[in-house]
Amino acid sequence: MCTGKCARCVGLCLIPLSLICIVANALLLVPNGETTWTSDHLSLQVWLMAGFIGGGLMVLCPGIAAVRAGGKGCCGAGCCGNRCRMLRSVFSSAFGVLGAMYCLAVSGVGLRTGPKCLMNGKWSYHFEDTEGAYLLNRTQWDLCEEPPNVVPWNVTLFSLLVVASCLEIMLCGIQLVNATIGVFCGDCRKKEGTPH
């Protein structure tokens, strides 16, 4: 597969993944779909905005750069074999790997620690000492009185962020290698005479 076609394919996969991360992080701010909870009622991992910043904006840029790298060359006719755009995509992809790793780390800790919730009249991270064992014991999930349904809400959304960020790391890594090859070898579509 040509480096340009590969870049475009990777970019078109990264863009929706980054948007999924942004939406998931936004939903984490409103447990059970309610906007009544303040910053004192939400866990630190929610406020670190890993899905919005890391898996979202920091991956959206490499996604767009990869799609652009899969287009015509910087002079409009592919005269440089897209090397300039591929070089930009190398740096963007490295930036995207860092963002996705940040999202993965924070989301993983969010899953392991569990949500901050009201239990027995006290707001705290009540599942923190279980080291993630609460994930397999759904009977414990109902022990959180407020926010309602916060445990399944957090588990679902943080799990989605973990999966999305893993895919983003993989795709940004592929594009990092692909773009590096594109910098040195150019875009083979020019040689094939494929219309852009």
UniProtKB/TrEMBL annotation:
<dbReference type="Pfam" id="PF05805">
    <property type="entry name" value="L6_membrane"/>
</dbReference>
<dbReference type="GO" id="GO:2000045">
    <property type="term" value="P:regulation of G1/S transition of mitotic cell cycle"/>
</dbReference>
<keyword id="KW-0812">Transmembrane</keyword>
<dbReference type="GO" id="GO:0034618">
    <property type="term" value="F:arginine binding"/>
</dbReference>
<dbReference type="GO" id="GO:0005765">
    <property type="term" value="C:lysosomal membrane"/>
</dbReference>
<dbReference type="InterPro" id="IPR008661">
    <property type="entry name" value="L6_membrane"/>
</dbReference>
<feature type="transmembrane region" description="Helical">
    <location>
        <begin position="12"/>
        <end position="30"/>
    </location>
</feature>
<feature type="transmembrane region" description="Helical">
    <location>
        <begin position="90"/>
        <end position="111"/>
    </location>
</feature>
<dbReference type="GO" id="GO:0005886">
    <property type="term" value="C:plasma membrane"/>
</dbReference>
<feature type="transmembrane region" description="Helical">
    <location>
        <begin position="157"/>
        <end position="181"/>
    </location>
</feature>
<protein>
    <submittedName>
        <fullName>Transmembrane 4 L six family member 5</fullName>
    </submittedName>
</protein>
<keyword id="KW-1133">Transmembrane helix</keyword>
<comment type="similarity">
    <text>Belongs to the L6 tetraspanin family.</text>
</comment>
<feature type="transmembrane region" description="Helical">
    <location>
        <begin position="42"/>
        <end position="69"/>
    </location>
</feature>
<keyword id="KW-0472">Membrane</keyword>
